[in-house]
Specification:
single chain, alpha/beta, four-stranded parallel beta sheet
Length: 319
């Protein structure tokens, strides 16, 4: 364990626009990344990304306006970072910071702070439990590029994935049980919603779906409740994983189901996908079709969840 030198922990996350004027440049950064979506030939990626960002910005801005005028993901990730740093206080000298991929604080900004703090080693802890090249993979590629560019030759411990980390699963299971109990013993359809991914990535060996299924099996072992997996947040002109959450909502209504619980399984904090897409857009769809609709609470800085992150960090530095 690192009792002498200081360890810097980077909580890798997507990032999000904090103000409405940030939306278009954020979308440009997002769609310019070929690891998350491939838009035509490589030399055309930036131009196509600019066109998509320009077209999508008004709708995205309206969505962010509905949840307070910007994404809370930086604030939520920084809360998680502070909580993790406090939890690790007795384990050594740790500095924990949020490190975003498509908006501030970018990797180079955080690495400069780590250099000033004179850390001796780094731990990359993605806040994506399920590995995908489009999320963890892209963030790690960017982090390594920035380390090389800044000539920071530090040991880097990478936590690649953690789909069935016991504390993570226990926290999510408790939230499922809490919400199911709120239906008063009535039959409830549990629907796990994950961020969608281009199908081509899975064909090329991306383990994302396998990791999601590992999480669901671990949850079902605790709750005893069978659920179904679906996807949300498709973006761009490619084939995406399905079924989409709106399709599942429609199918449940057509089958005469009356109660559904959505579990945002790939999201560990509140942001636009949970606060707007699920809790506003899809809630309205479900309730309009006669379904009673509930969503599990986000993990955010839940102390038990933070203990799970602590265990991941200590295992990484010990190894």
């Amino acid at each position: 364990m690192n009792k002498n030198g200081k360890t810097g922990i980077l909580l890798l996350n997507l990032g999000g626009p904090e103000r409405l004027e940030d939306v278009r440049p954020f979308l440009l950064n997002l769609f310019s990344d070929r690891q998350i979506i491939r838009l035509g030939p490589a030399f055309m990626q930036r131009f196509i990304a600019w066109v998509i960002a320009y077209r999508r910005a008004p709708k995205s801005m309206a969505n962010y306006q509905r949840i307070g005028g910007g994404s809370p993901i930086r604030a939520k990730t920084e809360e998680q970072a502070m909580a993790l740093e406090r939890t690790l206080a007795d384990d050594g000298h740790f500095t924990v910071r949020a490190c975003m991929r498509y908006w501030h604080p970018f990797a180079d900004e955080v690495l400069r702070e780590m250099a000033t703090a004179q850390v001796r080693q780094l731990v990359a802890l993605p806040l994506y439990p399920h590995y995908s090249i489009a999320t963890t993979g892209s963030s790690l590629t960017d982090l390594r590029q920035q380390l090389k560019r800044m000539h920071m030759d530090l040991p880097l411990h990478v936590i690649r994935d953690w789909p069935d980390q016991p504390r993570f699963i226990a926290c999510l299971a408790a939230r499922i049980q809490e919400k199911v109990a709120g239906f008063g013993g009535k039959e409830v359809e549990v629907v796990y919603s994950a961020h969608s991914l281009p199908v081509q990535f899975i064909r090329e060996g991306d383990p994302y779906v396998e990791h999601l299924e590992r999480s669901i099996r671990a949850l079902e072992a605790i709750t005893g409740i069978k659920g179904q997996l679906c996807y949300q947040s498709r973006s761009g002109p490619v084939e995406w994983l399905g079924p989409a959450l709106p399709e599942v909502i429609q199918r449940l209504a057509d089958q005469g189901k009356r109660n559904m619980l959505v579990v945002p399984i790939s999201f560990v904090s509140d942001h636009v996908e949970t606060l707007y897409e699920i809790d506003i857009e899809y809630r309205q769809l479900a309730e309009g079709l006669g379904l009673r609709f509930a969503v599990t609470r986000a993990l955010n800085a839940d102390p038990d969840f933070i203990e799970g992150l602590r265990a991941l960090v200590l295992e990484a530095v010990a190894g």
